[in-house]
Amino acid sequence: MKIHFKSKTQVKILEEIKKEIETTPYKNIIHLSEEKGFVNVKIKKLGTSELYFSCEENKGKKTVEWHLFKEKIAFTHKAYKSEVLEHINKIIRNIGGKINKT
User: What is the pTM of this model?
Assistant: First the structure.
């Protein structure tokens, strides 16, 4: 999965995603953090699942691309994976991100 953001910086993207998460029923279970060169999306409820995205920011063009490079899905989350991913995708689209699932 690749996510492309146009006319935004990495800092602004993270701020907007965190703000959007606060408006969802998942606000207490989805946690976002930035590490060195990647973003970690952690889902904690009856287990912990994590999605790791590498980040490439082109400050000249004001674009950012995230590439999903690793995921750890808790056994208890496997049945709900597509539902939670759809909510995450909706948040991404709400802030202007474009998702490419290839």
Answer: 0.85
CATH number at residue 73: 3.30.310
- C-alpha 65/C-alpha 102 separation (Å) is 13
Total tally of structural domains belonging to the chain:
1
Per-residue pLDDT tens over the stretch 31-87:
999 988 899 999 998 899 999 999 998 888 888 999 999 999 999 888 888 887 788
Which residue range(s) make up the domain with 28? 2-100
DSSP secondary structure letters along the chain? -EEEEES--HHHHHHHHHHHHTTSTTTTTEEEEEETTEEEEEEESSSEEEEEEEEEEETTTTEEEEEEEEEE--GGGGGGHHHHHHHHHHHHHHTT-EEE--
**Six-digit token string for 2:** 């690749």
